[in-house]
Every structure is written in C-alpha cells, then in structure tokens.
C-alpha cells in the first residue's frame, strides 16, 4: 500500500486518503496542544507559511497517548491551536500513533523510519516524519528537534523533482 492510499479523518470526521498530498513534500507530526513541546506549533506554522506555496505540506495528527496531553477534539482543537499558536495548516482527527490501535499511517511511517536503536514506537508528542514528493519517508526527527532545525532538509527536498 502506498502512503497516498492511507485513509485519514479530518477534524470534522470526513474520511479521505492522502492522495491530495501526492507530489508534495510532507512534514507529518503527531501533536498535542497541552504538551511542553506545543510551542513548536509556531515553528511548524512558519514552515507552512514559508514553503507551503513551494510544495510543502505540514500535517498534524493529534494524539492523546502521551500523558493525556490532547484533551480537545475537532473544531475546538483546531480553534485552540489557531488562537494560541496561529496554526492554519491541517490538523486531522485524533489518532493512536503507537500500541495495538496504531493508525495505519503511523504503522507505515514507523516501519519506514524507525527511531533510535531501530525502535519503531513513537516515544512522545511532536515526533516528525519528512516525506519526499514521491511518498518515500526520508527521515524521522525526535520531539526535541525543533522545526527550524528541519528547514534545510525541507529546502533540499523541495529543490528535487
């Protein structure tokens, strides 16, 4: 199965696949609005603003699996992130990014780009996956890696056809 075939739900519950992002560089992030890393929303938004028209898609997938740091759902979540962090990039419906109920997207991402020591499991909120224009997972970034540290990788991928 291609990354673009994976079904996802919008924050309003509509189901689609990721084919809308075919041909774009994607930065896929598991987010949580109450996490200590939530200030990274501003850096992710900056990447979205600076490179969105050049072919970058920043995509957030909220998860409540780490210390219950994402209590919000749907429009309330999107509104909170917009008001507090200026987020305008897509935030999808909450998903599981690890464990028995892991969403097929994260099953795909973690298999393609395991973490440190080859471990596949997501360890915390704001783990980031960089995907090239052909849907290949290029790199995984730890939650502590801020969006500005990823910018050079994004620039390089955007220059490739």
Automatic annotation (TrEMBL):
UniProt keyword annotations, A-Z: Oxidoreductase, Peroxidase
Family: Belongs to the glutathione peroxidase family.
Organism of derivation: Cohnella lupini
Name of the protein described by the UniProt record: Glutathione peroxidase
Catalytic residues (UniProt): 35
A GO molecular-function descriptor: peroxidase activity
SUPFAM superfamilies (UniProt xref): Thioredoxin-like
PROSITE patterns, sorted: GLUTATHIONE_PEROXID_1, GLUTATHIONE_PEROXID_2, GLUTATHIONE_PEROXID_3
PANTHER family: GLUTATHIONE PEROXIDASE
Single Gene Ontology BP annotation: cellular response to oxidative stress
């Amino acid at each position: 199965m291609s990354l673009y075939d994976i079904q996802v739900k919008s924050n309003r519950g509509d189901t689609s696949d990721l084919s809308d992002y075919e041909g774009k560089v994607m930065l896929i992030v598991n987010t949580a609005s109450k996490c200590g890393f939530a200030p990274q929303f501003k850096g992710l938004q900056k990447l979205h603003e600076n490179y969105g028209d050049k072919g970058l898609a920043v995509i957030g997938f909220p998860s409540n699996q780490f210390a219950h740091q994402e209590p919000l759902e749907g429009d309330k979540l999107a509104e909170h992130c917009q008001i507090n962090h200026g987020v305008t990039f897509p935030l999808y419906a909450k998903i599981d990014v690890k464990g028995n109920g892991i969403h097929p997207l994260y099953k795909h991402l973690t298999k393609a780009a395991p973490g440190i020591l080859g471990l596949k499991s997501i360890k915390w909120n704001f783990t980031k996956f960089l995907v090239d224009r052909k849907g290949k997972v290029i790199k995984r970034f730890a939650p502590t890696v801020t969006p500005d540290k990823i910018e050079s990788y994004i620039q390089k991928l955007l220059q490739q056809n």
